[in-house]
Inverse folding.
């Protein structure tokens, strides 16, 4: 028996990605196997790498008040609520993830004399630095007055925002939650990952034995979440059911994932428990799949552990191979992609996966797009600091 | 007492009062003169005096960490100690860490910018970069204590600490953890202080040696407070307070919302929180609570911590509470946001 007050559904999705604004553009691009990763040298002197950028970001009033990350978030949120005709939207909660936030607006000159940098035009730019500004900007833009919270849990942020948003609904604190993530490309993060030698100068190859690192992308995604009862009351179009969610920490290393994937596997198992489903019911996993040597092997072990006992290997792909790793936005974007996979019955292959990590328990999706009914799928995220998050989505019809 | 409410069973802090476990018994503090960087004349703030973390938490290594991470490690350890929690007998996969911060690891972020200014973006420091991430303090707490439950870092304009407390309580209520360490803090740096100064946000007391009262406006501060939140009272625990229902919002009708939250069950003690505006006059609190209710004003040292000051407001109020009874943590921002959280004090 479904408890409509405790069942969380997705009734809107907004996306800004290198494919453009809107989920349909993202989905069309991915169904066509189009890769948005391109060579870049202009991001800072000495950088030679591969990134995915958004070329046409919509304009906003008083644009100088907002960072690029804010604007991506605002555009995605506007897209998400475009079809939400609801008089309680004003009281909605907002949970937005970001790791970059307003770092896009600050340059190294600040370190030579902060006060002078502020007086020379940096004051407003620095005002967009706090990560809370991403959530507040969405609220300002959409005139939403409910609780607004930002999440910063490295690359698991976007998925954790969705989980916290769902908790907010279980609490009955708000009628609707806009949950998602946003991050823009900026020299700070590119330089940081480059210093760690984590970037692949060529388009990344997640889960390939010859993988060589990640590519950074930019984007934003926002999911409109509400209880099934609220959605039915307003006759909303239900896109998917958020069946389960979980968060864990490896408590193993500041940056590297736990080699055997125990923490991530525990996260997946908890999410499955919450979803009340067994390992055979999950038809697809949208993986974290960064393309770094350490992440991908740890993640493979996590799938082997969490899905042990399945009748067939678990189908897994990394859609970061299409438009890179969007950091704080990744979990939300991949949640959106997972929902499109369920809706279209389309299992996206990992691009450029020619020589996959050996595993008899993982069905690496590669080559052609696979079409099959998909009642339930999972999106998995992980990040620096050992954080893991898993979201289980199901078809509303299932 | 409602046995189903999450309870605060342990407190640790690293604040201008120093690193402490439990309540703070010291008298109100005055801000100190800034000496860590060159200022044009006297500049004052509520600063944490340097201390040796390993002297308080044996085995902790903080040399390469942002001060925010070091303080999180110390405050969390002191809070666990104060709670009398024996981690060795607990399921650590059921222990969450929930951190609130307004600015995150701003010290090492500035250091990273410094390395970019000196060496160019192609010559930045790989050791520093991961420590600039906002979730570093919470992940260090998890790593040091082997805590494998949810590990979340949040921020919220004006009410980051309060939102973390509410969301951590939500995790416990929904059975996603049995215990949560809730932390809230920020560090003060030259770049942060000068931003406040250029934006003309500093109180006059930042520029003179006059004694400061709670209503003197914004004097920047720093620190970290940790509270252990448990889903049920352990037999050996000495709980400080139970958390009831609460709400926070970026705008809307605060008065109506708080009235709805309280119903006829009015608090005996109202604790003002926020970044400086005294809630008793700005909400106002006086006509939302009983005539006999005591109002504990927002304290300058906690208001100075900005968005992350809520736990210090609460800690100072718990340290000065009149006794057992019903309380309300109440705050209003200059932009119309508000927070209200019911508490039962033990």
């Amino acid at each position: 028996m479904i408890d409509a007050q405790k069942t969380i559904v997705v009734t809107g999705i907004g996306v800004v990605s290198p494919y453009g604004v809107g989920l349909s553009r993202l989905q069309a691009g991915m169904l066509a196997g189009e890769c948005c990763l391109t060579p870049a040298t202009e991001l800072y002197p000495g950088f030679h790498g591969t990134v995915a950028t958004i070329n046409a970001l919509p304009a906003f009033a008083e644009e100088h008040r907002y960072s690029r990350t804010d604007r991506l978030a605002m555009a995605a949120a506007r897209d998400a609520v475009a079809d939400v005709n609801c008089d309680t939207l004003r009281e909605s909660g907002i949970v937005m993830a970001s790791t970059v936030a307003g770092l896009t607006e600050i340059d190294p000159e600040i370190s030579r004399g902060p006060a002078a940098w502020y007086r020379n035009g940096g004051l407003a730019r620095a005002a967009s630095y706090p990560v809370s500004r991403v959530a507040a900007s969405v609220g300002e833009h959409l005139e939403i007055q409910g609780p607004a919270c930002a999440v910063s849990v490295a690359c698991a942020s976007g998925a954790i925002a969705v989980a916290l948003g769902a908790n907010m609904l279980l609490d009955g604190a708000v009628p609707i939650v806009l949950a998602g993530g946003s991050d823009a490309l900026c020299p700070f993060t590119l330089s940081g990952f480059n210093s760690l030698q984590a970037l692949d100068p060529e388009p990344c190859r997640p889960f390939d034995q010859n993988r060589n690192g990640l590519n950074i992308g930019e984007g934003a995604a926002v999911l409109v979440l509400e209880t099934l009862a609220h959605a039915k009351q307003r006759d909303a179009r239900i896109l998917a059911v958020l069946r389960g969610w979980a968060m864990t920490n490896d408590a193993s290393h500041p940056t590297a994932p736990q080699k055997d994937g125990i923490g991530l596997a525990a996260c997946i198992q908890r999410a499955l428990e919450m979803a009340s489903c067994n390992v055979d019911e999950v038809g697809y996993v949208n993986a974290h799949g960064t393309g770094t040597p350490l992440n991908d092997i740890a993640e493979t072990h996590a799938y082997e552990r969490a899905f042990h006992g399945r009748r067939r290997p678990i189908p897994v792909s990394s859609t970061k191979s299409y438009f890179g790793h969007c950091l704080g936005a990744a979990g939300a974007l991949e949640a959106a992609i997972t929902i499109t996979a369920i809706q279209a019955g389309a299992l996206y292959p990992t691009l450029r996966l020619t020589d996959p990590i050996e595993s008899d328990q993982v069905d690496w999706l590669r080559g052609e797009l696979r079409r099959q009914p998909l009642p339930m799928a999972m999106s998995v995220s992980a990040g620096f600091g050992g954080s893991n998050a898993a979201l289980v989505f199901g078809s509303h019809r299932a | 007492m409602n046995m189903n409410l999450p309870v605060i069973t342990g407190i640790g802090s690293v604040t201008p009062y120093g690193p402490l476990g439990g309540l703070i018994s010291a008298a109100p503090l005055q801000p100190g003169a800034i000496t860590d960087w060159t200022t044009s004349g006297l500049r004052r703030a509520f600063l944490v005096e340097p201390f040796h973390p390993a002297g308080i938490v044996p085995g902790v290594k903080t040399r390469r960490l942002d001060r925010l991470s070091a303080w999180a490690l110390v405050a969390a350890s002191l809070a666990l100690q104060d709670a009398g929690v024996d981690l060795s007998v607990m399921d650590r996969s059921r222990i969450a860490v929930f951190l609130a911060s307004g600015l995150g690891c701003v010290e090492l972020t500035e250091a990273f910018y410094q390395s970019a200014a000196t060496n160019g973006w192609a010559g930045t420091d790989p050791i520093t970069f991961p420590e600039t991430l906002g979730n570093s303090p919470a992940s260090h707490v998890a790593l040091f204590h082997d805590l494998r439950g949810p590990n979340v870092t949040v921020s919220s304009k004006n009410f980051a600490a309060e939102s973390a407390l509410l969301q951590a309580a939500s995790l416990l209520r929904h059975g996603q953890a049995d215990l949560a360490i809730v932390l809230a803090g920020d560090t003060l740096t030259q770049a942060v202080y000068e931003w406040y100064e250029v934006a003309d946000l500093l109180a006059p007391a930042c520029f003179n040696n006059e004694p400061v009262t709670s209503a003197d406006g914004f004097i920047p501060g720093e620190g970290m407070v940790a509270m252990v939140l448990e889903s049920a009272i352990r037999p050996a625990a000495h709980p400080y307070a139970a958390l009831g229902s609460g709400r926070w919002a970026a705008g809307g009708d605060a008065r109506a919302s708080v009235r709805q939250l309280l119903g006829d069950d009015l608090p005996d003690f109202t604790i003002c929180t926020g970044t400086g505006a005294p809630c008793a006059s700005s909400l106002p609190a006086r006509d939302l609570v009983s005539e006999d209710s005591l109002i504990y004003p927002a304290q300058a040292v906690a208001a100075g911590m900005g968005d992350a000051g809520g736990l210090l407001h609460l800690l100072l109020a718990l340290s000065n509470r009149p006794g057992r009874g019903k309380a309300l943590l109440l705050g209003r921002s200059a932009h119309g946001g508000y927070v209200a959280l019911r508490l039962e004090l033990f």
